[in-house]
Write a structure and sequence with these properties.
eleven-stranded mixed β-sheet; two-stranded antiparallel sheet; 36% helix; Amidase domain-containing protein; alpha/beta; transmembrane helix; Amidase signature (AS) enzymes; AS_sf; transmembrane
Length: 520
């Protein structure tokens, strides 16, 4: 869920490679230069093709970045000890005249995975908790299998708000038992948000170019927003959740976090699709367009679009901020790019939608959490814990490891007391469906909108309870240098339109800047 140095981690490799320097510059014998930092997937692939760069060199660069920056940023829990050997295999495949023509855009690209996404290898999958350390998963998560088949190099596991922040209401959004307190790379006093903060920080600070996050309510959108990167939270079911530590089958979604819209779309093209192990993908797969999503990376993607702007209550936390002034400038840019902007729209019952206690979200997720985690744990080959009750007891037995007294377990205990999806829970789910139909869906259809656009990440909750997609794109920085994003949201299956609008906006504004020099 959104929440606004581990001694067990595998050692971070410090690799001395003559062609790599910390500025991200790879120098070839012929004198041509290529800068890894801030490079897009397409630029990296061109460097591969021109033999200015190898996957092995790229992995070495990222391992060096992790070794240098992770003690401060604490966004990576562990690195894959087999990453270099997998990169070497990718380099070999690229020189194979039979294989080379069929290699896709993610071939040889390192990827960090949120530490709740199963990998059947030497990496842990622990949701950031010591309680699951050493557990054995039966297979790769479906999305990981698709990434491997696309030729990516699994670089390691990114930190997260432990158990997605579902353990306690007072859990800090940037805290993980295994990883400690994470740091926003832009502003020392700024929050990186949660729960996919490790995935967002690592991409922002050029410790990797591609990562995967998960979202139940804001957990991709918020950290992407506050770390100046692009995040896509797909329509629920567009990407399989099989093999991912669950929270809510109604709301969980897996999506990319990258530095550019085009990079995120490359990843979405690979990970989206039907999976018999996740029934939600059966209905959602109908939304996937023939030819994939890259075709919607259009420079005139805003032309002819109708965009609705919702200010209340999403602008409240920005009162007096430079961000509002910049947002107004961005709206003018969208108009100039051919979009019709329908301003000052109001979502019916938005105060109830945004309140998890009143909307029914907290009631439903409390029951779903227990059912989902218990089901996941039973599927493991081996695990120190077999149920939510075991996790609670583990935390009681290991207060120093899990900081149980400081963090608490109130949400876990409340979930353990639930008895499944009863009448109260069914009523809560029905209420969220009605709030969505009479709120977001109604305003979209009544105004014939292609998408909603707003400032920051607070609208993520409205999108979450209805299973709607959202994309956040870097929008700028406030007076303190803290990043903020521009959020595009739409109805289920509207990813093509969101990509068109987000890509045009990104290319027209070029708002993203790298972190300060001490993180570069």
């Amino acid at each position: 869920m959104k929440a606004k140095r581990s001694s067990t981690c595998l050692g971070f490799a410090t690799v001395v490679v003559k062609v790599i320097i910390l500025t991200g510059l790879v120098k070839e014998i012929n004198g041509s230069d290529f800068r890894i930092s801030e490079a897009t997937i397409d630029e990296i692939q061109r460097a591969f093709a021109e033999r200015k760069l190898t996957s092995t060199q790229l992995v070495d660069f990222y391992l060096e970045r992790i070794s240098s920056l992770n003690p401060i940023l604490r966004s990576v829990l562990e690195v894959n000890p087999d990453a270099r050997s997998h990169a070497k295999e990718a380099d070999r495949e690229r020189t194979d005249p039979v294989l080379a023509p069929s290699l896709g855009p993610l071939h040889g690209i390192p990827v960090l995975l949120k530490d709740s996404i199963n990998t059947k290898d030497k990496l842990n999958t622990s949701a950031g908790s010591f309680a699951l350390l050493g557990s054995k998963v039966p297979r790769d998560a479906h999305v990981v299998g698709k990434l491997r088949r696309a030729g990516t190099v699994i670089l390691g596991k990114a930190s997260l708000t432990e158990w997605y922040g579902s353990r306690s209401l007072i859990m800090p959004s940037n805290w993980c038992a295994r990883g400690g307190y994470a740091q926003n790379p832009y502003v020392d006093s700024g929050t990186p948000c949660g729960s996919s903060f490790g995935s967002a920080i690592s991409v922002a600070a050029n410790m990797v170019s591609v990562s995967l996050g998960t979202e139940t309510d804001g957990s991709i959108i918020c950290p992407a927003d506050q770390n100046s990167v692009v995040g896509i939270k797909p329509t629920v079911g567009l990407t399989s959740r099989a093999g991912v530590i669950p929270l809510s089958p109604r709301q969980d979604s897996i999506g990319p976090i990258c530095r550019t819209v085009s990079d995120a779309v490359h990843v979405l093209d690979v990970i989206a699709g039907y999976d018999p192990r996740d029934e939600a993908t059966h209905s959602a797969s109908k939304y996937i367009p023939e030819g994939g999503y890259r075709q919607f990376l259009k420079k005139e993607g805003l032309k002819g679009k109708r965009l609705g702007v919702v200010r209340n209550p999403f602008f409240n936390s920005y009162n007096g901020s430079l961000a509002i002034f910049i947002f107004e400038h961005h709206l003018n840019t969208m108009r100039a790019r051919g979009a019709t902007v329908v301003d000052d729209l109001e979502i019916p019952n938005i105060s109830i939608i945004q309140n998890a206690s009143q909307s029914g979200e907290m009631t439903a997720i409390a029951a779903e959490l227990k059912l989902s985690i218990n089901k996941y744990l039973k599927q493991l080959i081996s695990s120190p814990v077999k149920s939510l009750a075991d996790i609670i007891q583990f935390n009681i037995d290991h207060p120093d490891l899990e900081k149980t007294k400081e963090i608490g377990q109130d949400l876990f205990i409340g979930s353990e007391m639930t008895k499944g999806i009863g009448e109260e829970e069914k009523g809560a789910i029905k209420k969220m469906e009605e709030l969505s139909a009479e709120g977001f869906e109604k305003i979209m259809r009544d105004n014939e909108l292609d998408g909603l656009v707003t400032l920051g990440s607070d609208a993520a909750t409205m999108l979450a309870i209805g299973g709607y997609p959202g994309m956040t794109v870097p929008g700028g920085y406030d007076q303190s240098g803290m990043p903020f994003g521009i959020l595009f949201g739409g109805l289920r299956g509207s990813e093509p339109k969101l990509i068109e609008m987000a890509f045009d906006f990104e290319q027209s504004t070029k708002a993203r800047k790298p972190p300060p020099p001490h993180y570069m």
